[in-house]
Amino acid sequence: MSAAGAPAGRTPETATCIPGRIGVVGLGLIGGSFARAWHEAGFEVFAWNRTRDILDLARIDVVDGELTDDVLPTCELVVLTTYPEHSVQWLRDRAHLVSPGALVIDACGVKRTVCDQCWEIAAGRPWTFVGAHPMAGTQHSGYARSRADMFQGAPMVLCPSPDLKDLDRLELLSRLVGLLRPVGFGRFSVTTPEEHDRLIAHTSQLAHVVSNAYVKSPAAQEHRGYSAGSWRDLTRVADLNAPMWTELFLENRDNLVAELELVIGHLSEYRDALQDADAERLERLLQEGTDLKRRADLPHPKEA
Questions:
Q1: Cα gap 283→280, rounded to integer Å
Q2: Keyword set for this entry (predicted)?
Q3: Terminal-to-terminal C-alpha distance of the chain
């Protein structure tokens, strides 16, 4: 037996995936939270991590062992939670080890480049890749910040291959949701990588850029005693993982640039109204923003 508990030399031809056995690639904030949540739900969790000491720490009370090449063929579900480029390469290097019938998902913040490459890797193989993005997290990173309840009530976005037939897609998503629901997700959405990346440019990426740029004012260093909820809310995601977000922003740069151009245009409208001391125009702009915010927060027709 290997140290991780699987027979040495096991291959997809001689192994079948074990129901409820999960492989987690990367033990950062998201991967660590996945591992903790599945562990608490009674699942068997094996993990891979670039930094050995973090993996050893997780093995004390969270993961059942290392996600080695012997264990990978026995996993029913594998979750890729590292940076997009690394997640794709990790799967490419081990695609031949994934067991027939297994599911592989990612947790990356962009979907087009990841899904296109991973669907190509999975083509002709007896396992299935589904793009995924858990809509949860914090401004912090790292395994030490991971929590078993990170995904409680959170949305999960899924991007199945467009090549799947309708019945196959329904069966696949039903099985995948069954494996993911014990983690705590409150809602599942199915979309295309293109639609995901268009919307995420606004709901996540633009917010990080604006927050990061906002704190570059010299006044930010003098905020103590003069700031409350507004400053705290707007600056929460200014403290970010620069290498990771650089990769995500560049992978989605067309959509993010379009969102930046929109917000720059709107900010220019406020600036011009202030420079002209035009109270009527300024009030109209402010009321437009208020009305749009309230409309955006109304229940979606599908949720009503």
A1: 5
A2: Oxidoreductase
A3: 54
Phi, psi (degrees; rounded to nearest 5) at 132: -145, 150
Looking up tokens 């962009």 gives 110
CATH tag, 18-191:
3.40.50.720
- Confidence band for 259, pLDDT divided at 50, 70 and 90: very high
Task: Say what the pTM is.
Answer: 0.88
The pLDDT value recorded for residue 139 is 66
Q: Rounded CA gap, 110 and 141, in Å?
A: 18
16 SS3 class: coil
Q: 184-238 pLDDT, tens per residue?
A: 999 999 999 999 999 999 999 999 999 999 999 999 999 999 999 999 999 999 9
Strand 103-106: give its sheet, edge to edge.
65-66, 44-48, 18-25, 75-80, 103-106, 128-134, 155-159, 187-190
Tokens representing 45?
A: 């969790």
Could you please state the CATH topology (level 3) that the domain comprising 196-296 is classified under: 6-phosphogluconate dehydrogenase C-terminal fold (1.10.3660)
Size (the chain), residues: 304
What span, in angstroms and rounded, lies between the C-alpha atoms of 174 and 163? 17
Please report how the helices 193-200 and 112-122 are oriented relative to each other, as an axis angle in degrees rounded to 10: 160
Give Cα separations from 20 to 16, 78, 138, 254 (angstroms): 12, 11, 27, 39
Domain residue ranges in the chain = 18-191, 196-296
Kindly state the average pLDDT of the residues 24-46.
96
Can you give 126-164 as a three-state secondary structure string?
CCEEEEEEECCCCCCCCHHHCCCCCCCCCEEEEECCCCC
Q: What is the token pair recorded at 173?
A: 């998503």
